[in-house]
Amino acid sequence: MEKTTTNSLSWVIGGAQGSGVDSAANIFSRACAAGGLHVFGKREYYSNIKGEHSYFTVRVSDRPVHSHVNEINVLASFDAETIFRHFEDVTPGGAIIYDSDVANTLLSEVPTVDDHAAARIKKTLEKAGLGLTVQDALGHAKRRGVVLFQIPFFQLLQEFAQKANDPALSKLTRMVNVMALSTSMAIMDFDNEVLARAIQFIFRAKKKVADLNVSASAHVYIYAKAKFAGSNFAYRLKARPTEKDMIIVQGNQSSALGKMVAGCRFQAYYPITPASDDSEFLEANEILDLNDSGKKGSTVVIQTEDEIAAIAMAIGSALTGARSATATSGPGFSLMAEALGWAGINEVPVVISLYQRAGPATGLPTRHEQGDLNFAVNAGHGEFPRIVLASGDIEESFYDTIKVFNLADRYQMPVIHMLDKAIANSVTTCRNFDPGKVGIDRGSMVRQITDKDKGVAGNYLRFKLSDNPISPRVVLGTKDAIFWNTGDEHTEEGHISEDPELRVQMMDKRMNKLELALKEIPDEDKAVAHGSSDIAIVSWGSTKGAVLDAMEKLAGDGTKVKFIQVKLMSPFPSELVRSMLNGVKTMIDIEMNYTGQLGSLVRQHVGREADYQIVKYNGRPMSLDEVYNAVKRIIGGDAPRRQVLKSGA
Amino acid sequence: MALKLSDYKTDVHNDWCPGCGDFGILNAIQMALADMQVPPYKATIFSGIGCSGKTPHFIKTYGIHTLHGRVLPFAQGAKLANPDLEMIAVGGDGDGLGIGAGHFVSAGRRNVDMVYIIFNNAVYGLTKGQASPTLKLGMKTKSLPQPNVNNSVNPIALALVAGFTFLARGYSYDVRHLKDLIMKAVAHKGLAFIDVLQPCPTYNDINTKEWFQGLDNVDPETHKAMPRMYKLEETGYDGVVHDPSEINQKMAQVIEKSNEWGGKIPIGIFYQNEHVPTYQERIAARIPDYMENAPAVQQIADNKGKTITSIDRLLSDLRVDK
Ligand SMILES: Cc1ncc(C[n+]2csc(CCOP(=O)(O)OP(=O)(O)O)c2C)c(N)n1
Ligand code: SF4
Ligand SMILES: [Mg+2]
User: Fold this and answer.
1) In terms of CB atoms within 10 Å, which of A193, A254, A380, A642 comes out highest?
2) ipTM above 0.95?
3) Other beta carbons less than 10 A from residue B145's beta carbon
4) Where are the strands (E) in chain B, listed by range?
5) For a substitution probing ligand 1, which of B20, B117, B127, B200 has the most ligand atoms within 8 Å of its CB?
6) A316 touches chain B (CB under 8 A)
7) First vs last Cα of chain B: how many Å apart?
8) B124 CA distance to ligand 3 centroid (A)?
9) Which helix (H) or strand (E) element contains residue A421?
10) For chain A, how many structural domains are there in total?
11) Of A402, A419, A93, A103, which Cα lies nearest the Cα of A231?
12) Contact (Cβ atoms closer than 8 angstroms) between residue A501 and residue A490
């Protein structure tokens, strides 16, 4: 028997979209978290509702984990396609759980395996002198030392139905997801009680479904335990007491939770992956608890006819004083460009949560990319101030969300909060969110005006020119403080003006707010330096997890690298980034796009070109290993200037 | 002290062409506000882009001059965030029925309690007279290089099928009648639409003031011009849906009446249906204190700047030891 590995593994479940892959993965993640372990999981799926292949990777460890790895230690499947897609990635000593009924399925019999993937799989199998069935793929894995666990799912369902005295249950093929999961837990010797609790939790809205799944799971668990008692499979998951104050949270909830805390009370959106979840979470929880008061708060969430309307409504709402936002992805953000400029020239605080996905146009609608940085920084015609802030992970995104509303109010301008598909569709254990950590700063918003906000005629001047580029802002409906807004250049009151001198004054006023913002925004919100070394990785957004984990692995080899995580993209914190790059001999730009967009921002603002570029644009997030290997290659001195990463199914 | 008409006027120089129909609409809006004694700070005029888009700058209430075609979403967002304020949206026919047509239809589905006025001059005024969506097929105004190749949209019928619940047409030179329509539109519970026939003397030499007033249409007996416009209310027409059972019949007569054009052009109220819940009411059905505690007025922080929102209930669901 091999050496046992406990509480450190990579688990994958796959299946057709709509067959419960997500639920099974959510149960698995929650069970591990409830068992005191750290998890990082990510979901991969096609732009499709039913039938195409989707899978969920969860890395489990007794130490914090921030990324996924290429390797699979346990592959839980209940269809043929999952085997074909992933058998090569299962490690020697790892496990494949599969349905006995699919063993003879031919590759050509799985219509959802597209030609490109089929050709790759065929090549691998033929090279090994094998045929093209699931059995052959399994044989390929077995040769490499993978342990196979065959489960007759249908037969087990029938037995279960008989035992429960309810023949209808045998048709409940929907439960095979939980059965596959349960098998994986049995072979890893995970506590069945903890598993049962996780199932109950995930299906808590439907007690009957929950109970049924718990029983089905237990049935399979016992079966697998007995059947595979003598197996030489060496991975174990052992529950332990949970750490204090830990949560398990999904990336499509964290920013929405931040919005609630920030006091965002209005969100308008048009459906788009992966941003809709943010709005739907807000709407599902539209009534809000308030501290120490019987009163309730509420969020008005509006599904609009398009993204132009979404941002326009959010701006209209912001004019009334409500903290307002919209959430979208690249295609929707493209439509928002004109209104973004309107908010800029009229100094309206509005937040745009930009959940990037792979473009251009519709691109890869459900896949990951960080391709919109240039666009976020430059979107819209003409010149106007904006703030662009990028979060690196789920936990950060909660606190950053409160901060972006503060920035919008303080500097009276649109703020683009950059998130992405990798954050939105991942799940992680982390410290419980502390809603009191970031205060609420509404800047110069006033409910009443004073004489000094008025002009000589006694009228309120919304855009008063003074030493301070930020003018006191009233909201619609304030007594004695009427103002005007226009997309044209305007006077201090807000009326149209084409005066050349005033134009310069107003442009200066607006743009000067950026200088002020740069002075006032704390360093930790501009860029964060992790570790120190003369080899520095410069990166941004969700690559953070893989970079941090790779750094740790490199440190294990005795190589120290520094990681400069840039957060504020506009206005760009040139001074700070320059100082962080001081003494750095090797600068490595790591990003999920083709051109290296952050690299070009750094070149533009800091005047320094990255020595190496590690990029990826195949729609799949960077894994720990590929970042590690690519950096290792650079350190080893045999790397080209540009490495393109390609892992991921 | 009662508010006077002059309290609703700014001293911003008005640069519309002399004789432009927009002046009449502007006056009617100001007169309606004065008649209703709306405190200027309680009202906001939103506009799109075009000659018509400049309207808010001449009115002394809050004025938000937005983007081409987007006036409705801006105004709806504001109204839904603060339902306490009076929101009037105005804009051109190109603005609302061309580039903004999608918003027009979607606004009907929502029925937000506010007013939308289209300045219908059948041309794109501010871009020098191109055909607008309301210009009839085959018409060639002096500003067009070729006759119009598109058919025209019927704004009232489109608004009807989109779900607007108050439909009226006014004429910019019948200011009093238009003022009355605006007051009724404001009083209406739901989304009100007024299509205002607005001569553009500079670019539209077909639908001119003289044409509307029938100077080309002289009664052979009296030798007097026969105005094309006639008032629906003077013909015994009743557009009000008194009972939901009448809806189909009332809708049918709107289609018929709104298609009248050429010799006779009806103005007045085509349709009014207050049996449809407003968007505000639909929100209030889910958020019980919405009307008193709308987004704009909610307290979100204590006086030390600490959030007062508690997400404990949601966080406790995420706890690993749950
Ligand atoms: C997105 C965009 N496209 C085009 C324009 C140019 N533009 C300005 S006004 C206008 C048309 C105005 O016509 P209408 O809405 O009928 O208003 P009117 O001037 O007739 O009152 C256009 C196309 C613009 N401002 N914005
Ligand atoms: S172009 Fe026509 S609509 Fe515009 S101001 Fe002149 S007359 Fe009025
Ligand atoms: Mg027009």
Assistant:
1) A254
2) yes
3) 6
4) 43-47, 62-65, 86-92, 114-120, 123-124, 130-131, 166-171, 191-197, 229-231, 265-272, 309-310
5) B127
6) yes
7) 63
8) 4
9) helix A421-424
10) 4
11) A93
12) no
- A286 contact residues in B (CB cutoff 8 A): 286-287
Look at residue B256 and give its three-state secondary structure: helix
Burial of A142 (0-12, 13-18, 19+ CB in 10 A): middle
The tokens for A98 are: 């599969």
Which tens digit of pLDDT belongs to each residue from B6-29? 999 999 999 999 999 999 999 999
Domain residue limits at A566: 525-645
Decide which of A505, A521, A537 is a domain's last residue. Answer: A521
pTM confidence score: 0.98
Query: For chain B, what's the residue count?
Result: 322
User: Which chain A residue has its CA at the smallest distance from B57's CA?
Assistant: A495
Same domain for A481 and A532: no
Same domain for A35 and A157, yes or no, is: yes
Q: Whose CA is nearest to atom 8 of ligand 2?
A: B20
Which residues does A514 contact at the CB level (< 8 Å), separation at least 6? A385, A411, A570, A571
Residue A241: inside a domain, yes or no?
Answer: no
Which one of A492, A521, A550 terminates a domain? A521
Separation between Cα atoms, residue A506 and residue B170, nearest integer Å: 39
pLDDT in tens, B288-314: 999 999 999 999 999 999 999 999 999
Domains, chain B, ordered by start: 5-282 (3.40.50.970)
From B90's Cα to the closest Cα of chain A, the distance in A is 14
Residues in B closer than 8 angstroms to A268, CB to CB, are 73, 77
* A166 — pLDDT class (breaks 50, 70, 90): confident
For helices A307-319 and B101-110, angle between their N-to-C axes, nearest 10 degrees: 60
Read off the pLDDT of residues A98-148 as tens digits, 9 standing for 90 and up: 999 999 999 999 999 999 999 999 999 999 999 999 999 999 999 999 999
In degrees and rounded to multiples of 5, residue A269 shows phi and psi of: -155, 160
A209 and A137 housed in the same domain: yes
CA distance B117 to A552: 64
What six digits make up the tokens of B222? 């009296």
Pairing status of strand A484-486 against strand A562-566:
unpaired
A285 contacts in B (CB within 8 Å)?
314
Of A3, A54, A61, nearest in space to A429 by CA: A61
Q: What angle do CA A576, A580, A585 make, to 5 degrees?
A: 145
Residue A426 shares a structural domain with residue A459: no
Confidence band, pLDDT 50/70/90 cuts, at residue A1: very low
% helix, strand, coil for chain B, step of 5 = 35, 20, 45
* Across A156-161, average pLDDT: 92
Same domain, A365 and A454: no
Q: What pairs with residue A339 in β-bridges?
A: none
C-alpha distances out from residue A444 to A226, A501, A506, B307, Å = 69, 26, 18, 18
Q: Does the pLDDT at position A640 exceed 80?
A: yes
Give start and end residues of each alpha helix (H) in A268-393: 276-284, 307-319, 330-335, 337-345, 373-378
